[in-house]
Amino acid sequence: MTPRTVTIAPLRHEDAARCAEIERDLFPGDDPWSENAFHSELDHGNFYVGAYWDDRLIGYAGLALTDFESSVHTIAVERAHQGSGVGKTLLRTILAKADELGLPVFLEVRTDNVPAISLYLAHGFEHLGLRRRYYQPSGADAYTMGRPANRD
């Protein structure tokens, strides 16, 4: 029997329904992204990748790109695979794209999401500010974090 492996590859339009399913499970107290939101992100040329366990989508990450900066729009990993390094791999993949383009990276993260904050700090992000009641409808606060451009 072949062992199951995780592969990182470009996110596809046919993954949008699965992404929305993961969103509903992970973010029920806020406004989870819809299938149409993922289609829109892909249509606008943003950089999105998926983590596939065999052929099943188990996580995704998206990076919006401009000429001057980039912004992490989302990173999510289904509950059964959290803590296994999939999120770290997704983050490193989108950061590599920002580094390739020489762009700084910005993001918002819930102030109570300690694992994500730790991951971002370990990858060169710094706290820049606080956005009160950023996530709706829960009203949860968010830290704004940033990472300078890698111009090596």
TrEMBL record:
Catalytic activity: N-terminal L-alanyl-[ribosomal protein bS18] + acetyl-CoA = N-terminal N(alpha)-acetyl-L-alanyl-[ribosomal protein bS18] + CoA + H(+)
Domain of life of the native organism: Bacteria
One cellular component (GO) term of this entry: ribosome
Subcellular location: Cytoplasm
Every N-acetyltransferase domain range: 6-150
Organism encoding this protein: Saccharothrix mutabilis subsp. mutabilis
Protein's name in the database: [Ribosomal protein bS18]-alanine N-acetyltransferase
UniProt entry keywords in alphabetical sequence: Cytoplasm, Ribonucleoprotein, Ribosomal protein
Enzyme Commission identifier(s): 2.3.1.266
Database matches in InterPro entries: AcTrfase_RimI/Ard1 (IPR006464), Acyl_CoA_acyltransferase (IPR016181), GNAT_dom (IPR000182), MshD_Acetyltransferase (IPR050276)
Major location (coarse): cytoplasm
Cited Pfam families: Acetyltransf_1 (PF00583)
CDD domains for the chain: NAT_SF (cd04301)
Family: Belongs to the acetyltransferase family. RimI subfamily.
Top EC class for this record: transferase
Functional summary from the UniProt entry: Acetylates the N-terminal alanine of ribosomal protein bS18.
